[in-house]
Amino acid sequence: MTEKSKIKIKNFGPIKEGFGDEWIDINKVTVLIGNQGSGKSTVAKLISVFSWLEKSLFKQTVLKREVTRKSKFENFYCEYQNLKNYFKPNTEIEFFGIAYHFHYKKNRLSISEIKERKYSVPKIMYVPAERNFVSAVSQPEKLRYLPKTLYTFLEEFDRSKQELSESLKIPINNLKFSYDNKKGESKIIGENYNLPLYEASSGLQSSIPLYLVSKNLSEGINRNFDNSVAKESLEEMRFLRNRILTILKNDKLTEELKNQALELLSSVTRNDCFVNIVEEPEQNLFPTSQWEILKKLLEFNNSNVENKLIITTHSPYLVNFMSIAIQADYLKKKLFDLNNNSSLIKKLNTIISSDSTLPFSDFVLYQLEEKNGTIIKLPNTEGIPSSKNFLNQSLHHGNDMFDKLLEIEQELEVQKSS
Q1: What is the DSSP pairing of strand 380-381 with strand 384-385?
Q2: Of 233, 234, 336, 387, which shows the fewest CB atoms inside 10 Å?
Q3: DSSP 8-state code for residue 239
Q4: Rounded distance between C-alpha atoms, residue 6 and residue 190, angstroms
Q5: Residues 6 or more apart from 408 whose CB is under 8 A from it?
Q6: DSSP secondary structure string, 316-340?
């Protein structure tokens, strides 16, 4: 069974009591819903920060004494995600990872190593909501004061484009995406048109970078040459280079020991899985396009048993589509158990590919409340998310208002006829 990370958050930014003394499980697919200012992105960003720190400690590209140095955690590591002003005197955060346990309390961070748990080194990608900026603006890397996560995402988007050898079919409207390395031009190719990405719709400007980067990184994990490790930070690369030079210059080591040490060093720089943290995958998309993008994100997530997909969303469609993916997985397993009924499996695949289904045990949904700063885990029936969530309630509220308008119209007709 795959080990899970988990987190507790209290009195941090918009989050007050949070989930109380309960852990927020970081499942293979974790979905966070709630109003603006409820803390969805706050939770996702903290997961990103602690996951990156855990990876860096495991690889020894950062040292424990450096991370726990007073104010370093707040002003350096959390500042990358624009979280440094979220701390309060009574802030408490606890992250129980696979290799390390972090506990922040009374303005101090403590770290302890967790023994006897298998740690898979992740490639961590935070996909910010501002991602359409990388498509809409020429040379965004030269602009100042953008979120740091956007610069990192831009690097991955540029690398993914440059690795395209031919036009790529995207899961929306039978369109293709191409990139001209010589001219540095990103193009959208339709049946009767060909136009620059920056002239395309806002939905395409948002979804194509998300799709391309997610596809490239998930596939890179399973390649012999892992492109997902190509963009280590400069600080990490310097550290690793110094480690290698130290090994090579040590005259006391035999050639065999040097080779073993370098092999070990190589093993901890390789990425074994992909953690994809996506803000609002539905951004600017029609519901059917939301469904197509979600299916691809689930497919990429399913390509490796250790992969994780963490989503923040305002879309009731995405939550309902998760239910479809869960039900499809249930049916898929049932069909295979019943003598592998090929005709029904084929019929199921016309609705959703077997690569994109979602086991209910892999899914968890949390709802954040902006008014009192709490977090609740929504109940489910065999993994199907409860319909009693904020997003579905908003749809029901709209239906109720329409019913009341119809009642007024009926009363008006009665008055006119009397």
Answers
A1: antiparallel
A2: 234
A3: H
A4: 44
A5: none
A6: HHHHHHHHHHHHHHHHHHHHHHTT-
CA atoms within 13 A on the CB side of 206: 18
CA angle 261, 267, 270 (to 5 degrees): 145
Q: How far apart are the first and last CA of the chain?
A: 71
Tokens of 316: 């009731």
Specify the residue for token string 């092999």.
263
- The alpha carbon dihedral of 140, 206, 358, 215 has a sign of negative
Assess contact for 59 and 268: CB atoms under 8 A.
yes
Rounded to an integer, what distance in angstroms lies between the CA atom of residue 335 and that of residue 341? 6
Q: Which tokens is 255 given?
A: 């050639």
Which residue from 204, 201, 231, 203 is spatially nearest to 216, judged by alpha carbons? 231
238 band by pLDDT with thresholds 50, 70 and 90:
low
Residue 96, SS3?
strand
- What is the token pair recorded at 78? 């959390």
* Amino acid symbol at 320: N
Instruction: Give the distance from CA 323 to its chain's centroid.
Output: 19
pLDDT tens digits, one per residue of 4-59: 899 999 999 999 999 999 999 999 999 999 998 999 999 999 999 999 999 989 88
Give me 396's structure tokens: 């029901």
CA–CA gap between residue 152 and residue 99 (Å, rounded)? 25
What long-range pairs does 328-332 form, CB within 8 A, spacing at least 24? 328/352, 328/356, 328/357, 328/358, 329/357, 329/358, 329/359, 329/360, 330/360, 330/382, 330/383, 332/357
Domain boundaries, the chain: 1-121+272-413, 136-216, 227-269
d(CA 210, CA 130): 11
Look at residue 112 in the predicted model and tell me its pLDDT: 96
What is this structure's pTM?
A: 0.83
pLDDT value at residue 86? 97
Q: Which residue has the tokens 């080990």?
A: 3
Tokens linked to 197: 């990405």
- φ/ψ (deg, to 5) at 168: -115, 125
- CA-to-CA dists, residue 295 to 188, 288, 321, 339, angstroms: 21, 11, 9, 26
pLDDT for residue 336: 78
Q: Give the residue from 1, 85, 3 showing the smallest Cα distance to 42.
A: 85
43, two tokens:
């939770």
